[in-house]
Every structure is written in C-alpha cells, then in structure tokens.
C-alpha cells in the first residue's frame, strides 16, 4: 500500500495543496498537507478492507470500473476546482465515496484527521471529500493499467511482493496514523446522528 500512498502524494503536489487550502478556507498549507497524507492513508485502508470483503469487493470493483479510471489525474487541479468538467458526476462525488468507504465513521475520521493536522473538524471533513476522488482515481488507474481483478487489487493494496512480515506490519496499520485508523475502521455500530450534523456543517462550509 505504501506505493499507492506515495502515488497519491505525488498527485497532491504543492500546487494542488495550495488550491485545496484555498478551497476549504484554511490558512496553513502545511496543515492541509498533513491532513491530506492522513486522509490518503485512511481511505486506502478502507479500500483495502472493502477489497478483502467478498460482498463489498464487488461494489468496489464496479465503482472502479465505471466511475474511477484515473482520468481526472491528467488535470487534477481543474477537476478539483470544477473548471474541468467530468462526464460522469460520480467520479467527483466525494461525499458519496466517503459515505460508502467510511459509513458511520465519518465523524470519528474527521476528528482523527483534525487532531493530527491542526485543521478544524469541518475543514477536515470537506478535505476528505475533496481527496476521496483522487484516491479512487489512483486505485482505479492501477487496476486499469495492470488489468487487475479483485484478488489482484487486494494483493496490491496489501503490499503484494513483500515478505509476510512486511505485509503483517502494513495490515496492522503502520504509517502516518498507525493503528488508530485500523481500530477506527474495525469498529461496528449503528448510525450516528453526529455524522448528519457533521455533513450539514461541511455543506455550509462548502457554499
């Protein structure tokens, strides 16, 4: 997975980070960069877990096949700003992507990202929705260019080609946020009203 994290980071270069900083109304691009790194790892962990779940894996492959082929990466700044129109609105539907990947853990995720980056809760939530299409685009591009089926995709996400010890370390959540993200994604529970309040606040911020 480290290769995919590095690939996402390559696309989230300094120019993109500055644009994202302006879009969410933040003042410190370093905070946005730190948050972006954590969000990338969080979402890739969530995608990895979907790829290893038979039922969710089918939905993930369908989304990658139909909505996320990596095309937005060619003009990422235009796509993120809305100046570059995409043919498929689902491609840039960060809210829908985050809802499918994180479910009722959106509030907890935003809290973790806010704590580790210094961004406030709502800006962290908006940034997560903006970065989600980028992460899906990177994964979709990898799937398309390598002709991966679900098993191949899961292997890449798990760090295919590494030895067993390295894979176990990655599976346990080694990285920027470590086991915090893994334990967050492992939690089960019913819907949380606070997620709805968070979404309302993020929509106000995006206006």
Protein architecture, described:
By secondary structure, this protein is mainly α. It has one domain. About 70% of the residues lie in helices and about 0% in strands. The protein has helices at about 1-10, 15-25, 30-50, 55-65, 75-80, 95-100, 105-115, 120-145, 150-155, 165-170, 180-185, 195-205. It is globular and about 40 Å long. It starts with a helix and ends with a helix. Mean pLDDT is about 80; it is low at about 160-175.
Q: Which band does the percent of strand residues land in?
A: under 5%
Number of helices: 12
**Strand count:** 0
Structural class: mainly alpha
Largest beta-sheet details: none
End-to-end separation: 34 Å
The percentage helix is: over 70%
Number of domains: 1
Helix and strand sequence: HHHHHHHHHHHH
Radius of gyration: 16 Å
Mean pLDDT reading = 82
pLDDT < 50 runs, ≥5 residues: 161-174
Query: What does the overall shape look like?
Result: globular
